[in-house]
Specification:
With 177 residues, the chain is an all-alpha fold. It has one domain: Up-down Bundle (Ferritin), CATH 1.20.1260. It has helices at residues 4-33, 37-63, 83-110, 114-144, 148-158. α1 (4-33) runs antiparallel to α2 and α1 packs antiparallel against α3. The two termini are 25 Å apart. Bound molecules: MU-OXO-diiron. MU-OXO-diiron binds next to α1, α2 and α3.
Length: 177
């Protein structure tokens, strides 16, 4: 059975992951409103990924006989000054999430919770990818500039992103997805 301290920390993380989904969905809505449907698609895929992240914590707490507790999600920002500003905000947010994962690892170590440590290893690796993905977009946007043909090319490129659901059997213990 999961200890209360670990359970509480994971419930906080469910809130953070769903909060991430909410933030990226707000960015998708802003991009759609501005006719940047490719960037909106990128953010919609990111929203789905964040929901998967939240569900990994949900299942882990539940399967270890803990109690999932859902918390309030604050309304996200509605509009960003430019695509670059939105992706830079996303990068800042991912750094915050990485710090949260590191904090969870610390709690798992202190509680001698090996099951949580194994599950969290997936997230440690995932956060490297999460930060790298956003950084790549920021680099692209800086390269092409914020207007005209370059922006349309970047929009088309980002619109090719598709959501890949985790394979069946990617479980709460953090099996590779
Ligand atoms: Fe779930 Fe983007 O971190």
């Amino acid at each position: 059975m999961i200890k209360k301290r670990m359970q509480d920390a994971m419930n906080d993380q469910i809130q953070h992951e769903l909060g991430s989904a909410y933030l990226y969905l707000a960015m998708a809505a802003d991009f759609h409103a501005k006719g940047l449907d490719g960037m909106a698609q990128w953010m919609e895929v990111q929203t789905q990924e964040e929901t998967v992240h939240a569900m990994r914590f949900f299942r882990h707490v539940d399967e270890r006989n803990g109690r999932v507790e859902l918390k309030v999600l604050a309304a996200p920002q509605k509009e960003w000054a430019s695509p670059l500003a939105a992706f830079e905000a996303a990068y800042e947010h991912e750094q915050f999430i990485t710090a949260r994962i590191d904090e969870l690892v610390k709690v798992a170590r202190e509680e001698n919770d090996n099951a949580a440590l194994m599950m969290l290893q997936w997230f440690v690796n995932e956060q490297i990818e999460e930060e790298a993905n956003v950084t790549k977009v920021i680099d692209l946007l800086k390269l092409v500039g914020g207007t005209g043909q370059g922006l349309l090319m970047a929009d088309r490129e980002l619109g090719t992103r598709v959501f890949v659901p985790p394979p069946a059997g990617a479980d709460a213990a953090g099996a590779p997805a």
